[in-house]
Amino acid sequence: MEALDNFAKKQTRVYMFMPNLIGYARVILAFVSFLFLPCCPIIAMICYFLSCILDALDGTAARRYNQCSQFGAVLDMITDRFTSSALICYLTKVFPSWTFVFQFLIALDFSSHYFHMYSSLASGQSSHKILKEDAPKLLKLYYSDRRVLFTVCFFNEAYYVLLYLVSAYEGTIFCLKPIAILSWICLPVYVFKQFLNVIQLIGACLNLLEADEKKIKESQDKKN
Questions:
Q1: Transmembrane residues, as ranges (predicted)?
Q2: Which of 55, 58, 76, 80 is catalytic?
């Protein structure tokens, strides 16, 4: 551990920051997972979960070594988005009747987070996790409390993983088999996460509209 600390503290190039190295490992694990999705569920899910668990460590490393960076923040968010989306894409293959639902969820996830990050940058925030005072309380709780953030994200990813495992071993979630039961247990938190995505999307859109209208008003005032 001491050797790792010494290595991390010596890094001055952003691309070699410890949280970014963790990010690269997440990307590699995710693609290994995708490779094994059709043929080896156990290896696929071990790699997928390791990638997700490392998501909780990169932020810790960034704070521990004072290595926060814009590159790392974008790498983290993009990895989150494409990892989940790739698994959802596979789920459309094994649950074809749910294709529209999965397409909608991918669109909601990407648009919500893109609007939110752009809104944060446009308002001068140093991180998308820092919200305005008038932001919805549920969203502020989600981003300000790491325990809530981790729990919600864990159950969100667990639901997709369980759907995949159901397709591999049980065939349907409408049964009383163990994996299907676990998927139903995860469902309420999963639905809550989608609700947060909707709130986040609406809030970010309103913030951008407000900023645009403010600029237009300032421009008109200068002309007058």
A1: 21-51, 85-108, 148-165, 171-192
A2: 80
CB 143 within 8 A of CB 152: no
3-state secondary structure of 66: coil
Calculated CA dihedral for residues 35, 57, 70, 134, nearest 10 degrees: 110
pLDDT tens digits, 48-93? 989 988 988 888 888 888 888 889 888 998 999 999 999 999 999 9
Cβ distance 208 to 119 under 8 Å?
A: yes
The Cα–Cα gap between 155 and 163 comes to 12
Confidence of residue 1 (pLDDT cuts 50, 70, 90): low
| 127 in Cβ contact with 73 (< 8 Å) | yes
pLDDT value, residue 80: 92
- Rounded distance between C-alpha atoms, residue 51 and residue 98, angstroms: 26
Instruction: Report how far residue 181's alpha carbon sits from residue 173's, in angstroms, rounded to the nearest whole number.
Output: 8
Sequence-ordered strand ranges (E) for 33-116: none
* 55 part of the active site: no
Residue 215 pLDDT: 87
**pTM of the prediction?**
0.88
